[in-house]
Design goal:
Strand order of the largest sheet: 1-2-3-4-5-6-7
Number of helices: 2
Oligomer: single chain
Low-confidence stretches: 15-23, 114-119
Distance between the termini: 71 Å
Structural class: alpha+beta
Shape: elongated
Largest sheet: 7 strands, antiparallel
Number of strands: 7
Length: 119
């Protein structure tokens, strides 16, 4: 093997290693309509900043407005309200589509669905 060939092989090997070691980026995977203009978008992305591995996270949207990453959620049968638990903080959020407003009402330890009945 000539020195030129060895050099090209080494350069290709390093390039492949660098391409495979890129940090995880957030990418949309699926979008599901859940009614009244609300939808769930599942994204893959880093679980923590600068992570190499990807996790899968659900985000609640109202039309094109991202409400947040959710732990659990419930939409009123009338569609006038949505209650969800913000995944990262645990805050319970009440969103009113008519006013495009959200109000945080504190935190619940664990998942909201286990703390209150969503029916």
């Amino acid at each position: 093997m000539t020195s030129l060939t060895r050099g090209i092989c080494a350069l290709l090997s390093i390039s492949l290693l660098l391409m495979n070691s890129a940090k995880a980026e957030s990418e949309p995977e699926t979008s599901q309509d859940v009614g009244f203009g609300f939808r769930i978008v599942i994204r893959s992305g880093p679980a923590v900043p600068n992570a190499w591995e990807k996790g899968h996270f659900g985000f609640l949207f109202y039309k094109d407005l991202e409400l947040g990453q959710y732990g659990s959620y419930s939409i009123a049968p009338s569609g006038e309200y949505a209650l969800f638990q913000d995944g990262p903080t645990g805050a319970v959020v009440l969103f009113t589509p008519g006013h495009s407003s959200a109000a945080s009402s504190g935190k619940v330890s664990g998942l909201l669905g286990r703390a209150v009945s969503l029916a």
